[in-house]
Amino acid sequence: MPASTAPGVRLLPNAVTVLALCAGLSGVQFMVTGNHIAAIACVALAGVFDALDGRLARLLDATSRIGAELDSLSDCVSFGVSPALILFLWSLHDLRIGWVVALVLVVSTALRLARFNTLSDDAEAPPFAGEFFVGVPSPAGALVALTPLATELLLGPGWWSSPVTVAIWTVLSAALMISRIPTASLKSVRVPPTAVAPALVLVALAAAAVVAVPFALYPVAILLYLAHIPYAVYRYRWLERHPEVWHVPPRQRRAVRRAHRRLGLVPPRRPLPRRVAGAAARAGRRTMNRDRVGDRTPGSRRLGVRGSRRRGQGRGPERRPQDRPASDRPGPDRSGPDRSGPDRGQDRP
After folding, report:
1. pLDDT tens, residue by residue, 286-316
2. Vertex 23, ends 22 and 26: CA angle to 5°?
3. Averaged pLDDT score across all residues of the chain
4. Nearest 5 degrees, angle CA 307-CA 313-CA 314?
5. Per residue in 202-249, pLDDT tens?
6. What pLDDT does 277 receive?
């Protein structure tokens, strides 16, 4: 029997998902007992477990439908229910609408997970869609929502820990989760071989900072994550406008962007159909203006009438040959028999 089909191997990713669920709920228990540091640490540990279970399932070829459903339910509890209860027990209970704010966070997390499950089966998504999340993912949203509590543990009470500030921040965190703003996915991050050693040094420094000053790195990390969102939006829109690089590795995409800047190839700021329609409308207005000027110029009246006939929209009653001035009307053909007919060639009143 292949190792990938062994029952123990298939159980491992689901066991990690259950650990994430238990860690998230344990944060509520620690908050009830007044251990704020352990409460935030449990939510962060649930985020680590959530990042591991999917990778283990793909690595071990142990993906299953029940694992996907269990992961969604675990995320809803660990990053929706648990942070909402932690914030309510800490500060939101002093507000009349504090429980409503907590419910907004839970409902937004559930909606975000439901949309994620729906978009994962979208066959019409562009090839680069897997490099981005639609909105802030639920683990990051939970950690963003808990930032005021972490800031109070670092700096002490202040305006950032007032119930009104916490309520507004919680609603903004919920809005980021259900928004359509693209955010970068860690699955698309590739560390080049030459940057492996510096990256390991940075990881070691971050671990030392977490041990020495547990919450000094927390607000900084959250601010850096929020600061990356404008770049993610710019990158997503640039990829939308350049389908020729959808199947190109990220390093080569950067080379293409640099080449565009060097050559002055500025991408269109509006979608192409709108730009074409606007250019056509401006060209039509210029043509109409030239025709009007031509109608006022001596010797160009006949050309303007013919142009209007060709377009089918003349600017007045169409002139017949008999209505023209005598100097402009052609005379009878004198080289042969008169074929003008009884009425042709005669001046009418």
Report:
1. 655 555 555 554 444 444 444 444 444 444 4
2. 85
3. 76
4. 65
5. 888 888 877 777 778 888 889 999 998 998 898 888 888 877 766 766
6. 43
116 in Cβ contact with 150 (< 8 Å): no
Predicted confidence band at 199 (pLDDT cuts at 50, 70, 90)? confident
Whether 121 shows a pLDDT value over 50: the answer reads yes
Under a CB-based contact definition with an 8 Å cutoff, are residues 78 and 23 in contact? Answer: yes
What type of residue sits at position 256? V
| C-alpha angle 122-123-128 in degrees, rounded to nearest 5 | 85
HSE (side-chain half, CA atoms, 13 Å) at 40: 21
Q: Left, alpha or beta for 266 (phi > 0: left; psi -120 to 50: alpha)?
A: beta
Q: What is the CA radius of gyration of the chain?
A: 35
Q: What is the DSSP letter of 264?
A: T
Q: Count of CB atoms within 10 A of residue 196's CB? A: 10
Assigned token pair, 61: 């070829």
Q: 212 vs 139, which has greater pLDDT?
A: 139
For the purposes of burial, counting CB atoms within 10 Å of the CB of 148, is it exposed (0-12), middle (13-18) or buried (19 or more)? Answer: buried
Where residue 147 falls (left for φ over 0; alpha for ψ -120 to 50; beta otherwise) is alpha
Closest C-alpha among 31, 46, 99 to residue 77: 46
pLDDT of residue 307: 43
- Determine the residue type at 102: A
**pTM of this prediction?**
0.68
Query: What are the CA-CA distances from residue 257 to residues 35, 230, 235, 262, 277 (Å)?
Result: 49, 17, 10, 9, 27
Residues 6+ apart with CB under 8 A from 64: 10, 57
Torsion of CA 68, 69, 75, 80, to 10 degrees: 150
Find how far residue 51's CA is from the centre of its chain: 22
